Amino acid sequence: MSTIIKATAVAVAAGLGLVTLSACGGSDSGKDSADSKTVTLVSHDSWAVSKNVLKDFEKSSGYKVTVLKDGDAGEAVNKAILSKDNPQGDVLFGVDNTLLSRALDNGLFQPYEAKGLDQVGTEYQLDKGKHRVTPIDTGNICVNYDKKYFADHKLTPPASFDDLAKPAYKNLLVTENVSTSSPGLGFLLGSAAQYGDNGWQGYWKRLKANGVKVVDGWEQAYNEEFSGSAGGRKAGGDRPLVVSYASSPPAEAIYSDPQPKTAPTGVATGTCFRQTEFAGLLSNAKNEKGGKALLDFLIAKQFQQDMPLNMFVDPVTKDAALPADYAKYDVKVDSAKTMAPQKIADNRDAWVKTWTSLVLK
Hints:
single chain; 16 helices; globular; disordered N terminus
């Protein structure tokens, strides 16, 4: 996020009948005309949709969807900026609130008010009035904990940012490098929202003194270092706390065989930072009409209800219901930290540089 989806979900997507990729490699969008029947979606690597849902859109709209995956969200946005005069596709999906200002400041999108936008919660409409991007999904970056570890050690799991710096949790937390990882960056922004512009540095000094471990990305942190995940247990991970997502426990439980009554991992709900993903019609899209139809589809009820079990994210529309399996294990987060995109834009680079100096050196 930036991607909210977990690698666990990607690994089993094919077995669940999901479409994670319609096409890859170079786009032929340069050949498209305004009335082309192919519409190209550029996305980060975690795009997924059920086959029947995509087929329904293609049948009803008359457009064939081609998907071009361009790495993680940061990489996809950077590539889109560099190629904006001759874009690889028509719609870019996956730019999140940590990267939004960069995309908007570079004129990446043209305005379009998607049909059904009145069903999208106003708290997600960060470009309200200009409609350069459309909110598609939301989720929360949070510390996850290994329930078995804390039960075995008769230790109460942490519940807040403050708790993580306490001696009781020394050498238990693994997080991601903020310069290479979306959840890592989100966790930094959450701490800045919690402690303020001049307070988060002291907090990270305390975390460092308390033995926080930093790895490059989510995959390594969650599936290798974290003792609570299926991958982490197999790899011998010994950290019972990890920066991940509030939707990681549902993914962990749903992909267990047999499914447990409760998820084996929990969420420290006082450590969360809200992440929202957007899609937008690229400024020089070859197929504007098809791109607009695709944006309408992405916030339609059918797609919104399809997302949770595919990408493990929450819908942003008021009329979308969570699938039963997802809702069974869903973790409610009522007080996630947020930050205005412009504040992120004004501080992101300086904060990453300061964090690197404080934590990695």
